[in-house]
């Protein structure tokens, strides 16, 4: 990986395939917004970022090498060898096609509480509505960072609230799940920040102590928030993929990176022209 300073910005040149658009728009995170000029903007760990792709690499605005290495290198999972991961799946027909279509996806290493809370909100929801609820959550209870940006509110901030106080979010039944999660995480009953070091099954068991958190949300929290690449969330899209493409069983069920395979297949199945049925469902989470 190479860094080139350009004024206040940093050009990052990756030695591996990396697609910013595929990574930020594949359903794993909900605060990134593509602007009219093609640049992407979000707030991660209370740090605002505008980022965009060029033919040379990815430009991180108002970023120096120290900030990149402290926040963004880990967040975009640049230390993981995705070339080796893709190679391990390359003999599979459907995964090979999926990687040809969206092999530039990397799994974001999101802040664990934000990932958990976001996927609680995602239940029985569509992407525009999920984004709206999360935006209102941040502007109502996060810190004002200026410029229209807000941090994601901490578990401790939300733990002292009652579900009724979240009514302005228009989150519906999910409000009581958000508060229960906040209380169990902030009290340590659910050791969210230790789950990365635990076996997958122990992490799932811990997260499912939270009201409204089942296997799918727990797997998403572990995969996207705790770096557990062996987590394999199964939603309606993944059920469809497994039934259509792998009726005899998924051949990589024991892979330590099966969560990466899931993300390739998920994005491929939703957006590839190989599947020509009506795509009115593509905004479903």
> What percent of residues are in strands?
5-15%
What is the number of helical segments per DSSP (H or I, 4+ residues)?
12
Sheet with the most strands, sense and barrel status: 6 strands, antiparallel
Number of strands: 8
Oligomeric description of these chains? single chain
The neighbouring-strand order within the major sheet is 1-2-6-5-4-3
Low-confidence stretches: 278-282
Sketch the topology as an H/E string, one letter per element.
Answer: EEHEEEEHHHHHEEHHHHHH
Strand pairing plus helix content: what structural class? Answer: alpha+beta
Q: Radius of gyration, Cα only, in angstroms? A: 19 Å
Give the secondary structure arrangement, pairings included.
Elements: E1 2-6, E2 9-13, H1 20-24, E3 33-34, E4 40-44, E5 47-53, E6 58-60, H2 65-75, H3 82-89, H4 93-102, H5 112-121, H6 127-141, E7 144-146, E8 149-150, H7 155-159, H8 174-187, H9 200-207, H10 215-225, H11 236-245, H12 258-271
Antiparallel strand pairs: 1-2, 2-6, 3-4, 4-5, 5-6, 7-8
Describe this structure in words.
Helix content is 42%, strand content 11%. The chain is built from 12 helices and 8 strands. The chain has helices spanning 20-24, 65-75, 82-89, 93-102, 112-121, 127-141, 155-159, 174-187, 200-207, 215-225, 236-245, 258-271; strands at 2-6, 9-13, 33-34, 40-44, 47-53, 58-60, 144-146, 149-150. Strands 1-2-6-5-4-3 form a 6-stranded antiparallel sheet. Strands 7-8 form a two-stranded antiparallel sheet. β5 and β6 (58-60) form a beta hairpin. The longest helix is centred in the middle third of the chain and has 15 residues, at 127-141.
């Amino acid at each position: 990986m190479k860094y080139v300073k350009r004024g206040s910005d940093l050009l990052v040149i990756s030695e591996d395939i990396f697609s910013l658009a595929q990574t930020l728009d594949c359903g794993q995170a909900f605060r990134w917004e593509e602007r009219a000029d093609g640049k992407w903007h979000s707030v991660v760990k209370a740090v605002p970022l505008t980022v965009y792709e060029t033919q040379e690499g990815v430009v991180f605005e108002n970023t120096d090498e120290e900030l990149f290495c402290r926040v963004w290198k880990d967040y975009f999972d640049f230390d993981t060898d995705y070339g080796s991961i893709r190679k391990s799946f390359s003999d599979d027909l459907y995964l090979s096609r999926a990687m040809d279509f969206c092999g530039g996806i990397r799994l974001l290493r999101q802040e664990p509480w934000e990932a958990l809370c976001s996927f609680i909100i995602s239940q029985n929801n569509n992407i525009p509505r999920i984004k709206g609820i999360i935006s209102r959550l941040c502007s109502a209870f996060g810190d004002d960072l200026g410029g229209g940006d807000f941090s994601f509110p901490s578990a401790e901030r939300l733990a002292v609230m009652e579900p009724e106080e979240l009514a302005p979010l228009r989150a519906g039944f999910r409000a009581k799940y958000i508060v229960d999660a906040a209380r169990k995480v902030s009290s340590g009953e659910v050791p969210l920040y230790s789950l990365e070091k635990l076996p997958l099954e122990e992490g799932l068991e811990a997260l499912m102590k939270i009201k409204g958190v089942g296997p799918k949300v727990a797997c998403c929290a572990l995969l996207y928030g705790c770096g557990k690449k062996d987590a394999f969330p199964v939603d309606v899209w993944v059920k469809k993929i497994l039934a259509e493409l792998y009726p005899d069983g998924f051949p990589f069920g024991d892979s330590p990176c099966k969560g990466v395979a899931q993300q390739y297949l998920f994005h491929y199945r939703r957006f590839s022209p190989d599947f020509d049925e009506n795509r009115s469902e593509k905004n479903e989470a």
